[in-house]
Amino acid sequence: MSATTLIRSCNEAGKDIIRQCEGLRLKAYLCPAGKLTIGYGHTGPDVKTGMTITEEDANTLLSRDLVAAEKAIAGVVSVTITDNQFSALVSFVFNLGAGNFYGSTLLKKLNANDIFGAADEFPRWNKVNGQVLAGLTRRREAERTLFLSDATKLT
């Protein structure tokens, strides 16, 4: 990819799902999956036990994390999708990681242009260590709703 290639960006509706579902935590904590997390769901080797950040730092981390999720989607979705569909997928990848998305039935159905079949895959991703989490169930429903909100534009 050249430096001049523009990557599509997550829209505000997608960012709102992420912000609402992740919440803002300015002190590092363990998420339900057992990962050290800070800000709006930021994980990684730069997050340390006892670490604190500002809200501005959290927004910077979110912006950086969104770019990674946006690039991950841009590289594997081979069909035309709407901005809302893209943004729902960004929230999904932000939460679950690109690796889970790459191997998902959701991506397979999407790339087969089965938009409604792909949408029906969102709710299946509501567990951590085999346990259903109400927060993930709500998040997947919000992502699915956003994904389908303008699906008829492509049919």
From TrEMBL:
Ranges annotated as spanning the membrane: none
Hydrolase listed as a keyword: yes
Keywords: Antimicrobial, Bacteriolytic enzyme, Glycosidase, Host cytoplasm, Hydrolase
Pfam family, one: Phage_lysozyme
The keyword Hydrolase is annotated on this UniProt entry: yes
Lineage top rank: taxon: Bacteria
Gene Ontology molecular function terms on file: lysozyme activity
Alphabetical GO biological process terms: cell wall macromolecule catabolic process; defense response to bacterium; killing of cells of another organism; peptidoglycan catabolic process
Catalytic activity: Hydrolysis of (1->4)-beta-linkages between N-acetylmuramic acid and N-acetyl-D-glucosamine residues in a peptidoglycan and between N-acetyl-D-glucosamine residues in chitodextrins
EC id: 3.2.1.17
Membership in a protein family: Belongs to the glycosyl hydrolase 24 family.
Protein name from the UniProt record: Lysozyme
